[in-house]
Design brief:
ATP-binding, four-stranded antiparallel beta sheet, about 30% strand, six-stranded mixed beta sheet, binds adenosine-5'-triphosphate
Amino acid sequence: MIENVVELRDVRFRRAGKEILHGVDLTVREGEHWALLGPNGAGKSTILGLCGARAHPTSGTVHVLGHRLGRVDMQELRRSIGHVDPRHPLRSPLTVREVVLTGLTGSIELPARWRPAGDDVARADGLIGDLGLAAVAGERWPTLSQGERGRALIARALTARPRLLLLDEPSTGLDVAAREQLLETLDALFAAQPGLASVVVTHHLEELPTTTSHALLLRAGSVVAAGAAVATVTTENVSAAFGHPVGVTRADGRWAARTRVRQPT
Ligand SMILES: Nc1ncnc2c1ncn2[C@@H]1O[C@H](COP(=O)(O)OP(=O)(O)OP(=O)(O)O)[C@@H](O)[C@H]1O
């Protein structure tokens, strides 16, 4: 059994002559649900790319599912990771069911001569049902709402039974009802698969599922705080990460943030 699903140690990452991550440590264990929080440009997506075996660190080490990046076939490793990228570059008008099935082939489009086995279709339809998409399973990608596309991409990411699910701003562009439905779906999914680990990137505390167990707060490529969510997502840490006085509250397992108004003395 692999205890650490993701392990970053003193990770630095440079691109175009600029250091983007300045010595980041992160350990994600089985069954943990991490949130990466921080302002624009803090380096959240860069960390998610390392967790998803899409990039190598410039220095330091990254282990994903027990394999050290740089010493493993990245493409092979990526098949064990469900990565939900909202900028999914699909060009052809596949149906929801076909998009979900591309999770099995690890491709964006359906490979020309590939045909799913009967139990592949049954699994895809099961996930489509779990994600609340049964009514649109035969609808084509260009006709779907943003919320439906996001759900289809989560179902796609789960088809290959990953042990790690990565979500990059899954609530972006959703109305409040669609966001709440998505968060309920994620909570139900995590409860049904207790070994699954996840990492979600977001700018907004309101978009954290109640199942969020841990958080890493990032500012300009450095970790401000990391650990158990309740102890980490605090007024002090969030204000430091975002460089703004933000009051953090938590009720019924959900977080909220607003500008801290100074009381007149
Ligand atoms: N390939 C690259 N080449 C040069 N700079 C890059 C590259 N990728 C990311 N960066 C820079 O690294 C910094 C961190 O980017 P990243 O996308 O990880 O941040 P983020 O926290 O996810 O931001 P956002 O919330 O805006 O999505 C940014 O300043 C970005 O411009």
